[in-house]
Design a protein that fits this description.
Elements (H helix, E strand, L loop, with lengths): L1 H27 L25 E8 L5 E9 L4 E7 L7 E3 L1 E4 L40 E3 L5 E7 L4 H4 L6 E5 L16 E6 L2
Antiparallel strand pairs: 1-2, 2-3, 3-7, 4-6, 5-8, 8-9
């Protein structure tokens, strides 16, 4: 009888210890972290919150090194806004390829090869319509009016102003023909006819 009571007491004691052991990990768990806010939940201009946006520019020069206009770059919270204004006589009328190039150098007037290849160049990856691309420097085409002037605004999520202003800088290049956004390596856009160093 005593041995049965002793065994029963031991069993109850072990059961109580097991309950405490199971409860301990639950008490030790840290509270769950709050889920990150979705973009639509973030405060914006309606709430008086405006992002700090870095601003860059590029003085655009033509085939003979003459000033033809200016590009402005605005680094927003979700991508980079690029706006160009080119004077009459800057380009031949029609569509022209325009790209961000990896080196901020327009010193070889009329050739503009010193600006290097596209930012983020990938073998076989050029083109906004390319399933293997696009490269970070790929942009939509620019249209020149009958008098050779052009106005352009494009938004890209492929690059940032900070990345463009790296150690060797970057350049905006305009080509003689339009970019088909698929053909390698530059969409058939042809020679470089204008250049601007991003600053």
């Amino acid at each position: 009888m005593i041995s049965r009571i002793a065994l029963l007491g031991s069993a109850l004691a072990l059961g109580a210890c097991a309950s405490v052991a199971q409860a301990a990990p639950q008490e030790a768990e840290a509270p769950a972290a709050a889920a990150p806010m979705e973009a639509h939940e973030m405060p914006g201009p309606a709430e008086g919150v405006f992002p700090t946006m870095a601003h860059g520019s590029a003085d655009m020069i033509g085939l003979e090194g003459q000033s033809i206009g200016e590009a402005n770059l605005l680094d927003g919270p979700n991508g980079l806004m690029i706006r160009l204004e080119l004077a009459p006589g800057s380009l031949t009328p029609g569509w022209h390829g325009i790209h961000l190039h990896a080196t901020g150098d327009c010193s070889d007037i009329g050739m503009y090869k010193m600006s290097g290849g596209h930012v983020g160049k990938m073998d076989g990856g050029h083109g906004l319509l390319n399933p293997k691309g696009p490269e970070n420097g790929d942009l939509p085409n620019i249209w020149a009016a009958a008098d050779g002037s052009a106005g352009y605004e494009a938004f890209t999520t492929l690059d940032t102003l900070g990345a463009l202003l790296d150690e060797d800088g970057s350049a905006i290049i305009i080509h003689e023909s339009e970019d088909d956004h698929m053909t390698q390596p530059i969409g058939g856009a042809g020679a470089r006819v204008a250049c601007g160093v991003v600053k």
